[in-house]
Specification:
140 residues, Rossmann fold, 5 strands
């Protein structure tokens, strides 16, 4: 079975290396970006099953990345974009959902095991949506 491709866009080196290691150990292929500009360039190439996007980053924040994708979609379709943030109940999160983010994970609250569970859930859901003709008719 082909490994799911994850793009991790995270400027904090410790968090980025931790998430990379945890996800690789769980059987995912992980590419990383160190800031929003680097992340946007990789997202535009496309082909990722899931994108984990930090909100607060230098050069270009997560919301600016999401806005750019609305104006210039990727060459190859990507799976869902899930925010990585330490913000909870914040207007920034609502704004991100309005810009097509599919979820958010609070970095300070999530354990490595929970991260893997969430990533599996998002990658499985996106595969179901793409490959299942039932998904369209049953969405409520």
């Amino acid at each position: 079975m082909e490994k799911k491709k994850i793009l991790l866009v995270e400027d904090d080196q410790f968090a980025r290396e931790l998430y990379e290691e945890v996800l690789k150990d769980a059987g995912f292929e992980v590419n990383s970006a160190v800031d929003g500009l680097d992340g946007l360039a990789k997202i535009k190439i496309g082909g990722y099953d899931l994108i984990l996007l930090d909100v607060m980053m230098p050069k270009m924040d997560g919301l600016d990345v999401l806005r750019s994708l609305i104006n210039e979609p990727p060459a190859v379709k990507n799976g869902p974009i899930v925010l990585l943030t330490n913000l909870t109940n914040d207007p920034v999160i609502d704004t991100a959902y309005g810009l097509n983010a599919k979820g958010h994970l609070v970095k300070s609250d999530i354990t490595p095991g929970e991260l893997v569970d969430h990533v599996k859930k998002y990658t499985d859901e996106s595969q179901l949506t793409e490959s299942s003709p039932i998904a369209d008719s049953s969405s409520s």
